[in-house]
Amino acid sequence: MELLKYIRSNISNLIFILFIAVIFFSTDARAILIRGIMFTGLFNAEASSGIDKSAANRSIPASMTFRSEDGELINISENKGKVYFINFWATWCPPCRAEMPSINALASKIKNKDKISFIMVDVDNKMDASVKFMKKRSFNLKVYTSETPIPTQIFNGTLPTTVIIGPDGSIVFHHTGMADYDNKEMINFLNTLTR
């Protein structure tokens, strides 16, 4: 009887502790919580704020190559005239998981789909787990791994990191940390680059 009385009087504390435990132990729960925070608009990826003046107009290394889930090799510098949206992520990273729906939505809204490639780079090189993650969530994004070392000007180890390479082969956007990419400014920015 005393235990039942104690539980009733402390139910809100018990629920809070249970909530914290779920968030602590579940990557999906953390991603959902972060996604909810992203919907407030605090983490919108604005093209104007993502342009890194120190990185902008710098060309990427000629050797930077990625391998897709189906074995296709892409050397970015050999494909001038194309725009690349490159996202470095991992399946265990809650902020990466949180921003993935916005990247998927962005990819579906781009007008000139033949002039832009979305390269989702699994930094752990666990291709099978990453492809399974994408399929389970019905994301239409191709998974890649890096075939060559990535220079720190592009990826310094912070997850997630997003880089956009313009049609001339220069870095036109660089953002570290999570962001909501499904916004009007980013859609217009990419559509302008792919004209």
UniProtKB/TrEMBL annotation:
- Lineage of producing organism: Bacteria, Pseudomonadati, Bacteroidota, Sphingobacteriia, Sphingobacteriales
Q: What is the protein name for this chain?
A: Thiol-disulfide isomerase or thioredoxin
Query: Is Isomerase one of the keywords?
Result: yes
Q: Keywords assigned by UniProt?
A: Cytochrome c-type biogenesis, Isomerase, Redox-active center
UniProt xrefs under PROSITE patterns = THIOREDOXIN_1 (PS00194), THIOREDOXIN_2 (PS51352)
Gene source species: Daejeonella rubra
Its primary localisation, in coarse terms, equals other
| Domain of life the protein comes from | Bacteria
Residues annotated as domain Thioredoxin? 54-195
> Do you know which Pfam families this protein is assigned to?
Redoxin (PF08534)
